[in-house]
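Folding Query — how this chain folds
Tokens — whole-number codes for backbone shape
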Amino acid sequence: MMENKVVLNGTVVADRMKEQLQERVAKLSAQGILPCLATILVGDDPSSETYVRMKGNACKRLGIDSRRIHLEAATTTEELIAVIEQLNADEQVHGILLQHPVPSHIDERAAFEAIAISKDVDGVTTLGFAQNAFGLANFPSCTPAAIIAILDDYELPIEGKHAVVVGRSPILGKPVSLMLLNRNATVTICHSKTEGLANIVGQGDIVVAAVGRPKFIQGSWIKEGAVVLDAGYNPGNVGDVDYEACLTRASAITPVPAGVGPVTIATLLKHTVDAAELTVRA
């Protein structure tokens, strides 16, 4: 029945997270510390510019300093790494975010690896990934952490459930699989080479869509009563699942927009505040 459906409202979850952060930011401010997130944008990709602006505005509303570095598209890997190293050395900067994707001539992995682990608030380094695998990361990747935060906020059980993750990127599919595994879910990771994908998705009590293809996950694939978390965002405000079709079978589902996205940004802010607090305790 439709009345049993739960639309997992990410805006509400994000607002709760930001309310909790306000007191922590005020406490740091009283100690003379202004949490600071530095965002680096290389080139002029319109979507990336929008994301960076949204993150900056979210920082401003919470009293977090947002330092924006906009580099030309012709910037080399070496020049980008030099900028990152300057930010690593700047004690006023607590978090560093390199907006993905960078121009194709740049070695993105080398640039990510240049970010100091203490400032890797988006969980993009291999060390951060390894720490996440062991459940030890201060700053797990933001979108995976947002997915877990939504499940927890709505008190949806993870332990013992079969989670099916469609997507295997190093900053989304893989880390969220590890986080679910660390919470005692049984996890199946699917990808473009998976055979019998529809049947596997149909076994999932929890389905995470992170494939980057609009309306890829079909409603007929979804197990009756499954929880569906759509981490995709495609042109036209469309996610990776066919929302209306999946809604008929799922017990709970995130919309796009206003699902995982707002919680991802709130998680980035939380990690920046976490990083600032860690400098106080250091």
Observations:
- The longest helix spans residues 260-281.
